Amino acid sequence: MAVRALKLLTTLLAVVAAASQAEVESEAGWGMVTPDLLFAEGTAAYARGDWPGVVLSMERALRSRAALRALRLRCRTQCAADFPWELDPDWSPSPAQASGAAALRDLSFFGGLLRRAACLRRCLGPPAAHSLSEEMELEFRKRSPYNYLQVAYFKDLETQPHMQEFRLGVRLYSEEQPQEAVPHLEAALQEYFVAYEECRALCEGPY
């Protein structure tokens, strides 16, 4: 019995060490842009009137959340299959071992629990990459990205680029951010001359 308990304790310690190592290794390989980051980019684009930016970020946020859900499902299904909760059905303690049987079964259960946790860490990556706050989960459950998309889809997406840059530069200047406004105003001037030449080319007659 003592030998069996020692083996189980050794397994538990090994699994804990593997879980920590798995978190470090998985963090380096994580490549998904998280839904909350994309949602924040979308709301920022909405605030500055960047309607194409709203559409791009919110659509990517929805796709990212769908991919995250699929990843969670795959990882949980795979790890549940690899590390089931079943205890050893062939082990039957003798009367002399009965007093410690419950403790050994508990150790075996927690060993399986930690092995599954390590499997999930390897599969999912670090918690920061796949865990959403309750507030962000609520935003997606309320389908808030679609509300932003509806507004953005009905905005005038044919506004000339130089006007977008000009309005953004003016807004930053009016908010006493002249250094941030300068690049947008310069871009507006450059894009204006491009639009001017395009307009002349389109307005010329056949002769």
TrEMBL record:
It comes from Homo sapiens (Human). Residues 35-155 form the Leprecan-like alpha-helical domain. Keywords: Glycoprotein, Signal. It comes from the Eukaryota. Pfam families: TPR_leprecan. InterPro entries: Collagen_mod_leprecan, Leprecan_dom. This is Prolyl 3-hydroxylase 1. Residues 1-21 form the signal peptide.
